[in-house]
Amino acid sequence: MRKLFPALSLRLWQVWYRNFLVFRRNFLVNFLLPMGEPILYLVAMGYGLGVFIKQIDGVPYARFIGPGLVSVAMMYAAFFECTYSSFVRMIFQRTFDAIIATPVNVDEVVAGEIFWGATRAALNSTMVYVVVLLFGLGPVWLLPFVPVFGFVCGVLFASMGMIATAVVPSIDFFNYPIFLFITPMFLFSGTFFPLTTLPKAVQTVSYAILPLTHIVRINRAFILGHPDATLLGSLAWLLVVGTVAFFLAIALMKRRLIK
Amino acid sequence: MPEATKPTETPLVVAESLVKRYGELAAVDGISFSIAPGEVVGFLGPNGAGKTTTIRMLSCNSPRTGGRLEVFGLDVALHPREIKGQLGVVPQDNNYDPDLSVIENLLLYARYFGIPARTARQRATELLEFVHLTDKAGEQVDELSGGMKRRLILARGLINTPRLLVLDEPTTGLDPQARRLIWERLRELRQRGVTIIITTHYMDEAEQICDRLLIMDNGKVIATGSPQSLISEHAGDEARNRPRGRRGRRSRNRAGRMPFPEARGQVRDIRIRLPGRARAHPQAGAADVVQRAAGNA
Ligand SMILES: Nc1ncnc2c1ncn2[C@@H]1O[C@H](COP(=O)(O)OP(=O)(O)OP(=O)(O)O)[C@@H](O)[C@H]1O
Ligand SMILES: [Mg+2]
């Protein structure tokens, strides 16, 4: 009989450490590259497109999309780490098989991978926020909070990535969750234009099922300086869905790895 | 006095009517054995016999479908952590970490066992010496030869100073010299009192290092005994000269591969080179032995 609750111990950080060790080798590439893309977006959209848009919701366009870019970094970093990268480790490198021959168990391998994905989210979103700061589009005092929130959101997206990893038959199948879930979120979560321009029904769906919508909402409120109590609802949504996804990811990966 | 009163050491491994089913297929079909401390036991059998499945259950990585299985006196289903902490595993596939160097592979593996960094470094250095890889310590594993990779995996399996070392086809695909080097290391470990379980397709390998063999086919143990006794029992003249009969099942997991490809080519050798006495040619015998054992079983 399979246990309902995962058997986790601090050993999971050894799995995290393994990925950190490899990451550290290409530190500069891994660390600085995430800054490149938001710079391009800010210049192209914020200032290029921004010439025509002037203001959205009372702020210049570049200011408007800054929080969107920080949010997207949280999503992409964690989701891609725990899909393509985890899949390569699991199937092609057989890293997980090697680890579970030691006292580290499957639950810890999966949790370690998810927390590593969340760490990537924390790092990347922080680097993006540094860019936002360099362009003078946000307050400096928020900087230490970005990685914390990035980690929390990262756990959610990393877990969702792991769920995909647990069920895809081959690496090409990741195109489905990306096309059906990640790209729509990139576009329809209030990242580049306010949700209020969309039909009411789309807005409702967006709030109901797209985690990025809640993340953008929280990031924008803080970065633009108008947080309010309703954000707690979004935070609660993220925490609940994140926790469920985390446990589901472990359960599904166990099914895949233990035969 | 009857032998029964002789105090027997508590066995390290006990399997009783052990079964593993994948859907309809019984990969392991009710096998029983026990392994005493210090013993070197070989599982010999063709592709798909159930060797890896047995090893995987033993190393707590695959839940059994039925029967009893205890390692170090502990049920594998209930105490996987305690068991794995004292177990060394050399899996059939070289699952080293290609993103890391040779020594990093060992140091990282030590962390999974919770071995303190200083001890780990010392053990890793010793082990690299033991498997003759000291001068490769800083290299990327992908750049090593097949034999070196295998030795690295052997070293990795020893990083926790295991009481029981389990090796799944440690020398398959290696050249004779690389194989001899691994055998020599295994004999050294046996001298030091490490209990070893090994799976193999090769009779010569079994003969070289095993005290006792369990011959598997179709998920069952069809014969057991010392390598010598099995050879003389099952691979006599008659076996050599009879036309080949049933060869055991074909591989179900690797389409197109014949059972015992290695042994097949060698069977002719026995006839030519060793007429008369029932002593198998080193590289041969596996197919013969299994075939004969299956006939007798
Ligand atoms: N995960 C699995 N799902 C379904 N069937 C499996 C699985 N693993 C092994 N089998 C089947 O169980 C049988 C025994 O396989 P096993 O790998 O134990 O054989 P083996 O003796 O190690 O063979 P080889 O010499 O080729 O390594 C085979 O028929 C194989 O196809
Ligand atoms: Mg096998």
Main traits of this protein?
heterodimer; A: 259 residues; mainly alpha; two-stranded antiparallel ribbon; 10 helices; globular; B: 297 residues; alpha/beta; four-stranded antiparallel beta sheet; 11 helices; binds adenosine-5'-triphosphate; binds magnesium ion
Proportion of residues in extended strands of chain B: 15-25%
Q: Tell me the span between the first and last alpha carbons of chain B.
A: 32 Å
As a whole number of angstroms, the C-alpha radius of gyration of chain B is 19 Å
Tally of individual domains of chain A:
1
Strand arrangement across the biggest beta sheet of chain A: 1-2
Helical segment count of chain B: 11
Average pLDDT confidence of chain A is 92
Attached small molecules: adenosine-5'-triphosphate, magnesium ion
Q: Please write the string of helix (H) and strand (E) elements of chain A.
A: HHEEHHHHHHHH
Share of β-strand residues of chain A: under 5%
Largest interface: A-B, 21 and 27 residues
- Distance between the ends of chain A: 13 Å
| Alpha plus pi helix count of chain A | 10
Main beta sheet of chain A: 2 strands, antiparallel
What is the tally of beta strands of chain A? 2
Oligomer: heterodimer
- Poorly predicted regions of chain B: 1-7, 236-285
